[in-house]
Amino acid sequence: MDLRTLPMLPTINLSGQTAKPGSSSWASACSNVRRALEEYGCFVAVYDKVSSELQSAVFDALEDLFSLPTETKAKNTSNKPFYGYQSPHPIFPLIEGMGIEDAPILERTQSFTNLMWPTGNKRFCDSIHLYSELVSELERLVKGMVFESYGLEKYLNAHINSTTYLLRFNKYRAPRKTETNLGAFPHSDKSFLTILRQNQVNGLEIQTKEGDWIKYEPPAQSFLVMAGEAFLAWSNNRIHAPIHRVIMTEKTARYSIVLFAFSNDLVITPEELVDDEHPLRFKPFDHFGFLCFYSKDTQKTDCTIKAYCGL
Ligand SMILES: O=C(O)CCC(=O)C(=O)O
Ligand SMILES: [Fe+2]
C-alpha cells in the first residue's frame, strides 16, 4: 500500500481584499501564486466575482449551444488550429468543443452568437461575454502577481497589451458501456495561462511532477488556474506546465469553459531570469507559430515547446 499522503492542489484565495495590490496580504499572495505555478503548474483560485447566477446562466447557455444541429456548430471555424468546432471523433468519441476568439470583445461574442442563432440569443451573448470579461480580469491579476513576484513588473503592460484570448467550450458526454472513458487525452496546454470552470460533473485530473494524478474537485466559486508551455518558456523553465486529462466516470454530461491566454507578440524570456545557474533555455518564439507546430506534431512529445524553440 502506498503510504504517502495523497497530493492536493494548492488553493489560493483571490477574492475581495486579499488580492488587492497594496493590501497587507498582497506580497504573500503573489509569492503563493508563483510558488504554486512553479511546483504544481496550477492552483485552485477562489474568486467570487462570478456569481452563482452567472455560473448557472453560463452553463445553461452551453447546454443550448451544444444542442444546436451539427451543421450549425460546424460554422464555428477559424484559421488558427484548435480554435473552431471539434466534432466527436472515433478515437475520442466523448468530447465536442467550440471556441470564440477574443470573447471579451463584445463584437466577437456577438458575431459568434449570430452565427449560431441568426435570430439572436441575447441571454447567451450577455452571459458569455460578461463571464469572459470577468475571467480575463482574473487572468491579468494572476499574471501580474507572478511578474511582480519575480520583480518583473516593468514587462507587465506590454505583455497584457499583446495578450489575446480564446474562450473554449467543451462538452463530454457519458461513455456507453463498451466505450473508452477517456474524455481528453493527457496533454499540457500550449497557452500562456489557462483558466477553467466546470459544471458539477468532475473528471479532470492533473499530474504532479512526481507522476501522481490529482482529481480536480473544485470548491464553490473557484477556478482552476493552470500554466501552459508558453509561460514555462517565458519563465526560463521555472513555471511548470502540468499534464492533465479528463476521465469520465459519471453518468451525466460534463461541461467546461476554458479561457486560454495567448500572445500576439514574440514571447521572450526576460534577461533577469537568466544567469549562470539558469542558462537561457528557450529562443524567443511566435506563439501562433508554436501552436501550428503543435498541430502538425504527430509525435505529440511531452514538452512541445522544447522541441519548438528549446536551446
Ligand atoms: O475540460 C476540461 O476539464 C479540460 C479541458 C482541457 O484540458 C483543454 O481544453 O485544454
Ligand atoms: Fe488542457
Strand content: 15-25%
**Tally of DSSP β-strands:** 13
Q: How many helices in DSSP terms?
A: 9
Low-pLDDT runs of 5+ residues are none
Radius of gyration: 19 Å
**H/E element sequence:** EHEHHEHHHEEEEEEHEEEEHH
Heterogens: 2-oxoglutaric acid, fe (ii) ion
Overall outline: globular
Coarse structural class: alpha+beta
Helix content: 25-40%
Strands in their spatial order, largest beta sheet: 1-2-9-6-11-4-3
Largest sheet: 7 strands, mixed
- The mean pLDDT is 95
Q: Span between N and C termini? A: 41 Å
Describe this structure in words.
The protein starts with 10 loop residues before the first strand and ends with a helix. A hairpin with a 5-residue loop joins strand 7 (204-207) and strand 8. It is built from nine helices and 13 strands. It has helices at residues 26-39, 52-66, 70-73, 106-116, 122-149, 156-161, 229-234, 287-296, 304-309, and strands at 11-13, 42-46, 95-101, 163-172, 182-187, 193-198, 204-207, 213-215, 222-227, 244-247, 254-263, 266-267, 285-286. It has 311 residues and is α+β, with helices and mostly antiparallel strands. The structure holds 2-oxoglutaric acid and fe (ii) ion. This is Fe2OG dioxygenase domain-containing protein. One of its GO terms (molecular function) is metal ion binding.
